[in-house]
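note to self — DONT lose this again. spent like an hour looking for the file last time. sequence + predicted structure for the chain T wanted, 718 res
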Amino acid sequence: MPRTTPLADIRNIGIIAHVDAGKTTTTERILYYTGRKHTIVDVHDTKDLKSSTTTDYMEQEQKRGITIQSAAVSTFWRNKKINVIDTPGHVDFTIEVNRSLRVLDGAVVVFDGVAGVEPQSETNWRLADNYGVPRICYVNKMDRSGANFLRCVDMIKKRLGARPLPIQLPIGSEDNFKGMVDLVEMKALVFESDDRDAKPVAYDITPDLADKLGITVPSDRKILAEIEKYRSDLVDTCLEQDDEAMEAYLNDGTVPSVDQLKKALRKGTLSSAFNPVLCGSSYKNKGVTMVLDAVVDYLPAPTDVENIKTVDADGNPVGERKSSDDEPFSALAFKVINDAYGALTFVRVYSGVLTKGMSVLNSTRGKREKIGRMVEMFAKDANPIEEARAGDIIALVSLAETDTGDTLCDSNAPVILERMRFPDPVISVSVKPKNKADQEKFSTALGKMVRADPSLYLETDRETGQTILRGMGELHLEVTLDRIRTEFNVEGVMGQPQVAYRETFTKPISEQYVHKKQTGGSGQFAEVWITFEPLERGSGFQFVDETVGGSVPKEYVPSVEKGLRMQMESGVLAGFPTVDFKARLTDGSYHDVDSNALTFEIAAKACFREAIRKAGPILLEPVMKVETVTPQDYLGDVIGDINRRRGMIQEQLERGSNIAVVATVPLSEMFGYIGQLRGMTSGRASYTMEFSHYDPVPKNVADVVIEEAAKARSAPKG
């Protein structure tokens, strides 16, 4: 069947922000104004579980009033199809933002007009930078006490290193927020009520505009007095994108037309030369339709973005694939969820056409998949479709072999699309079913959750036999177990959180090891000489073969590396992985009969164990960047508590009427922090936390960790 929406008329966008900035509220309004919904449900109305917003439909989201899982919805505005993904703002669920940004072409970044740029706004902005996603900015909550548009714009510039370009100015603020000045059309758009169907009244820009609209607050009047200045900045910035218009302007002062300005704004946004900034109050139904207009006017269609990069099996770039129906089929699986429809694999189609019943290749795993049910998702609702084309975001039902990050493609034109990058987990807990009889059911549910969420890791402790679940934070792990309860009807029990420590060493060491065994028949022999050297923090593991003259045959060198990689997973101090070192294989010897791949693997393992003990091994701990926002009255208590937790204060920032204390704190000291913080601030403070780096553990703390690890290893199993 022919394409119903031209590729140039599609917008694949994400709504991203810090928690509570108003993403879900904005998405609800988008769906209402585009005609996909006839009612509006606000986040604060969902905690009784009797209703839900469209995109926050999970029980866990309703109870907590936050987005946990990104949700996809499709709608139309000005005859353009907009695929919207509402993403979480909580740091524990950054993975959802990560994988969404990988498949989106543009994003609307929502900022709280009071708080401005918050920690997760910063994290999400960097992720968007990594994937080269063009963005527009929307300063929301202009109706709240303490809202300040220009302060927020300044924070975008200073904290994000971006180039914000206001294309609107607010008319009033807080309770007196009335609308916005459109600097492109040069019209004042005033909402005379908060009603969801209220249309803005357009006013001409005149010197007495503030008086005419009843704006009395000096700072609000100052903004309106400087409309011409901001308009001039807008024109100058746009002229940088249009040589012809620049020449006309310089020659005879011809001001670019509205169409020319919009064309230049689009060009600059697509190249990320700047980021247009709008303002509004989604909750008060002011400004959302203008955001929709900006999405259509300035954010890219699939035809506007670079061709998707293709890689080889090792992830090295090898080429690209054009976004077109005429190219061979290729798509990236960016998410797997389990729901009433079975396993749903969300894919972004980058090229070609996918039809029901097609057989395609999972090129990442070398497996074939038969396409059965195909659906277009509207949050939790699935609408069956017969085909998908380049630019579409759809879900495939019950794929057996495909996980997050895998490529599906035409087997006659195989490609692997550039994969996503996921952070390592920083926290672990032991988990088990509440009832032993549910062991199998619980294990199956855990496996499905881990398959759906690449930031979860599952393993069995070799010493204790416990099932260990690793994730990005306490909330992340709590929500995972809660979802197992609601989605798979099986209760789980969580042990005490454990920190994901690492081990490394402090000085270089050269070690020789001979593996020799004679057991009656053929013997075993391998000799390796390996020099171990510490690397900078965050460098990981590097292996170099420096042997000459065939002292270690080339076919056995990979076995040496394999042995080292296996052994480094279990360090000598407390059994944690060893990181940040280089291993140089400098020499060795072999036996024509008694040497093989296994003997060199065994020799490498033993060499590592011997060397690391002599190389000054130390324990490393994850250190978190913590931002605590507190009223001024409690600032001293908050700082004192952070210091007691071995924290280092980095800076203090204004957040409206509150103070944000930015610090680095070891993760091991942060367990139970939220309860303590609420207690000492009467529930008025909040905090966010994200991984920063690894640091050496103080000796007194390290001794305790090592002792506890030794006890765990020697404890009776079972």
